[in-house]
């Protein structure tokens, strides 16, 4: 693939500001039909729970639609990895407080998402990131337990299909590094 030219500081497009006592985090972008869809966690300190919203930009990176919520659950959601694979659009948001990692498929992109399956691992995963490599799906994530491992341990799992079955890497944690 051809890599884009480096982005100059004056070319950076910032996400729109948030109201007081709220923030956006973990943006993931997906180009589709000439538009950039940016999915991000939105956290409101009054609700104490994150949800996933989408911001839509045109080719010139001008925001063309107001941000809107596309996935809300009774538990905290963050890190909305959005990607295309197997002819579908998928989202794998972190929701470790729910007790599982759930894979969602776009029923109507970008606004309607349906749960497809839970990915059984060695506990709820934190910031799980899927990668397709040499005919397998690989999942990089941090374990939710023990609490001390959340920021220092890297685990891997692999599967023949995105929906599984997932096999834990026998050398987990494959890396331990609090840095």
How would you sum up this structure, described in words?
By secondary structure, the chain is mainly beta. Strand 6 and strand 7 form a beta hairpin. The protein contains no helices and 13 strands. Strands 9, 10, 11, 12 and 13 form a 5-stranded antiparallel β-sheet that branches. A 4-stranded antiparallel β-sheet has the order 1-2-3-4, with no helix packed on it. A 4-stranded antiparallel β-sheet has the order 5-6-7-8, with no helix packed on it. It is globular, with a radius of gyration of 17 Å.
**Gap from first CA to last CA:** 31 Å
Q: How would you characterize the largest beta sheet?
A: 5 strands, antiparallel
Q: Percentage of helical residues?
A: under 10%
Q: In what range is the share of β-strand residues? A: over 45%
C-alpha-based Rg, rounded: 17 Å
| Total count of strands | 13
Helices and strands, in N-to-C order? Answer: EEEEEEEEEEEEE
The oligomeric state is: single chain
Q: How many alpha or pi helices?
A: 0
Task: Describe the global form.
Answer: globular
Global structural class: mainly beta
- Roughly what is the average pLDDT, rounded to an integer? 94
Give the uncertain stretches in residue-range form.
Answer: none
């Amino acid at each position: 693939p051809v890599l884009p030219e480096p982005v100059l500081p004056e070319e950076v497009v910032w996400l729109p500001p948030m109201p007081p006592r709220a923030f956006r985090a973990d943006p993931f972008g997906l180009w589709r039909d000439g538009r950039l869809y940016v999915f991000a966690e939105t956290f409101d300190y009054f609700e104490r729970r994150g949800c996933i919203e989408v911001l839509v930009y045109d080719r010139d990176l001008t925001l063309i639609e107001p941000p809107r919520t596309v996935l809300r659950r009774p538990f905290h959601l963050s890190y909305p990895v959005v990607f295309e694979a197997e002819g579908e659009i998928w989202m794998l948001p972190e929701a470790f407080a729910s007790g599982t990692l759930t894979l969602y498929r776009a029923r109507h992109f970008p606004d309607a998402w349906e749960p497809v399956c839970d990915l059984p691992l060695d506990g709820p995963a934190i910031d799980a990131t899927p990668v397709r490599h040499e005919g397998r799906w690989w999942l990089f994530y941090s374990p939710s337990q023990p609490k001390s491992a959340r920021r220092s341990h890297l685990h891997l799992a692999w599967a023949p299909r995105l929906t599984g079955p997932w096999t834990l890497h026998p050398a987990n944690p494959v890396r331990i590094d609090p840095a």
